[in-house]
């Protein structure tokens, strides 16, 4: 059996091979993530394992009738045509809970860096400017309000880390009834109330039809001029043109972005050149520990499907319902 690995962010596939070699699987690593390349290499594949590459209908269709599973290295599913896989009775598996603490820690690191102007001071000192005045104002974090958009596993981990810093934590999510208290003493509010009152807005919702472009010009203009935006979720939840305009006009004070609509951003990207924006390269999920767990669990899900079992974390349990 052949399993196509569309893309990965680590040095080799030894962890995956250790899990899969016992059932005679050959791993085929794609040299690039273009649809044409993936469709060509998918022919005859029993499985597809994908990180960020677009696993489109064309790619899935090319692997039929041999394909038995598509496995996502991670949580989000916006790069996989799940609907088409389901229609063709192909299970889609993922690893929904492998990097909760890592992303939460990264979000807090970005929040602290924005609060204490760490990146700005670093640039100033490296530029031979030893001056506290270079990055004022500096404000105490204690007593500020952190607003969480989404309240899933990662957001709850962020809330647990934010409270000891003296932050008031509020959240909005479809599962939360405004005016109630969520786990960890987090106050549930509407999105508008969150934007109006938060000093830091941190995004932790998935990318869906409802959330794409959620943080648009209107949302940004609701925020305080001293507020900052943090995104460790998905780039397309933020209207990047609106964000750049808002930062240029002083509508909000700053942003920290681990994810972008285009990764890496293209030449001439406005946000890259802005000193009030902190950038990291989609690194929030990454740690030595999380990567080993991710790779082992993704490979194990693939192995289960290739052996005729349902994955433990099945995205589309309805894939077998009709006619099968």
Task: Describe what this molecule looks like in 3D.
The chain has 324 residues and is α/β, with parallel strands linked by helices. The chain has helices spanning 14-20, 35-42, 57-63, 82-87, 100-115, 118-126, 153-162, 191-197, 217-222, 240-249, 288-306; strands at 2-5, 26-29, 47-50, 69-72, 92-93, 145-149, 168-172, 187-188, 200-203, 228-231, 254-257, 277-279. A 7-stranded parallel beta sheet has the order 8-7-6-9-10-11-12, with helices on both faces. Helix 10 (240-249) links the parallel strand 10 and strand 11 (254-257). The longest helix is centred in the last third of the chain and has 19 residues, at 288-306. The chain is globular. 40% of the residues are buried.
Topology summary:
Layout: E1 2-5, H1 14-20, E2 26-29, H2 35-42, E3 47-50, H3 57-63, E4 69-72, H4 82-87, E5 92-93, H5 100-115, H6 118-126, E6 145-149, H7 153-162, E7 168-172, E8 187-188, H8 191-197, E9 200-203, H9 217-222, E10 228-231, H10 240-249, E11 254-257, E12 277-279, H11 288-306
Parallel strand pairs: 1-2, 1-3, 3-4, 4-5, 6-7, 6-9, 7-8, 9-10, 10-11, 11-12
Helix pairs in contact: 1-11, 2-3, 5-7
């Amino acid at each position: 059996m052949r399993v196509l690995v569309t893309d990965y962010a680590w040095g080799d596939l030894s962890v995956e091979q250790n899990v899969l070699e016992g059932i005679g699987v050959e791993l085929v690593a794609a040299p690039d993530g273009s649809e044409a390349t993936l469709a060509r290499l998918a022919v005859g594949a029993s499985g597809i394992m994908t990180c960020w590459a677009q696993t489109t209908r064309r790619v899935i269709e090319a692997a039929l009738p041999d394909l038995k599973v598509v496995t996502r290295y991670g949580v989000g599913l916006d790069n996989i045509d799940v609907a088409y896989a389901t229609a063709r009775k192909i299970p889609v598996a993922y690893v929904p809970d492998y990097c909760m603490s890592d992303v939460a820690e990264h979000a807090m690191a970005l929040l602290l860096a924005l609060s204490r102007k760490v990146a700005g001071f670093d640039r100033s000192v490296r530029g031979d400017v030893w001056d506290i005045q270079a990055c004022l104002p500096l404000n105490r974090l204690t007593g500020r309000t952190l607003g969480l958009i989404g309240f899933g596993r990662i957001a709850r981990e962020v809330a647990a880390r934010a409270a000891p810093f003296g932050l008031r934590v509020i959240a909005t999510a479809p599962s939360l009834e405004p005016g109630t208290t969520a786990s960890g003493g987090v106050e549930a509010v509407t999105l508008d109330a969150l934007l109006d009152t938060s000093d830091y807005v941190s995004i932790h919702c998935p990318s869906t039809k409802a959330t794409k472009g959620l943080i648009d010009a209107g949302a940004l203009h609701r925020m305080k001029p001293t507020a900052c935006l943090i995104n460790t979720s998905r780039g397309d939840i933020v209207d990047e043109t609106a964000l750049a305009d808002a930062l240029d006009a002083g509508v909000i004070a700053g942003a920290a972005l681990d994810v972008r609509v285009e990764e890496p951003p293209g030449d001439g990207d406005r946000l890259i050149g802005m000193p009030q924006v902190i950038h990291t390269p989609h690194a929030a999920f990454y740690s030595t520990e999380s990567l080993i767990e991710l790779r082992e669990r993704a490979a194990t899900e693939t192995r289960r499907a290739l052996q005729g079992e349902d994955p433990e974390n099945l995205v589309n349990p309805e894939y077998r319902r009709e006619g099968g």
